[in-house]
Amino acid sequence: MIIVSSCLAGCECRYDGKSNEVPEIKQMVLENKAIALCPEELGGLSTPRIPCEIVLKNNERKVIGQDQNDYTQEFSKGAKIFSNVAKALNAKMVILKANSPSCGYGNIYDGSYTRTLTKGNGFTAERLLEMDIEIFNETNFHTIIK
C-alpha cells in the first residue's frame, strides 16, 4: 500500500485550508491504490492553522509557528501516528508534500518564513526514513505509478 499526503489527494487540509491537489495522486486514492493521511491533522492541529517551520533551538529541532508558539508536540504526535499506520499497512513507499515541516524530504523551509529552503526533513519524513520506507514527493512520484 502507498500512503500519500492528504493535501496532494485534494483534501483541503493545508495550513491555509487549501489543497495541493495532484490529479494523478488523487486518482490513486480514488482507485484504492493509495490512502491519504495528513500528519498535522493526525497530530491534533486544526485546519486552517498557523503556518509552521522547523528551527534549531538549543541543538534541538522544534516546530515553531509564525505566531512564535511551539508546535513540536503536535508534529511529533502526527508523525508517530502516520508511521504507525504505515507500519500496520506494511507500506513500502509514500508520496509526501515537498518542503513541509511534516512531510518535506531533502529540503524544508528554514524557519525564517521567507520561503527559503534548507537541507533537512520534516518530522514525518524522518520517522519514515528510520523505517526504511521509500519517500517520493509531488515532483518525482511519476517513477512509481504505472
Topology, element by element:
Layout: E1 2-5, H1 23-30, E2 34-37, H2 39-42, E3 52-57, E4 60-65, H3 72-88, E5 93-96, E6 107-109, E7 117-119, H4 123-130, E8 134-137
Parallel strand pairs: 1-2, 1-5, 5-8
Antiparallel strand pairs: 3-4, 6-7
Protein name: DUF523 domain-containing protein
InterPro entries: 2-thiour_desulf
Pfam family, one: 2-thiour_desulf
Tell me about this structure.
With 146 residues, the protein is α/β, with parallel strands linked by helices. It has one domain (2-143). It has 4 helices and 8 strands; from the N terminus they run βαβαββαβββαβ. Strands 2-1-5-8 form a 4-stranded parallel beta sheet, sandwiched between helices. A hairpin with a 2-residue loop joins β3 (52-57) and β4 (60-65). α3 packs parallel to α4. The longest helix has 17 residues, at 72-88. 41% of the residues are buried. The model has no long low-confidence stretch (mean pLDDT 96).
Instruction: Specify the overall morphology.
Output: globular
Number of helices: 4
The helix/strand order is EHEHEEHEEEHE
Overall average pLDDT: 96
What is the gist of this entry?
This is DUF523 domain-containing protein. β1, α1 and β2 form a beta-alpha-beta unit.
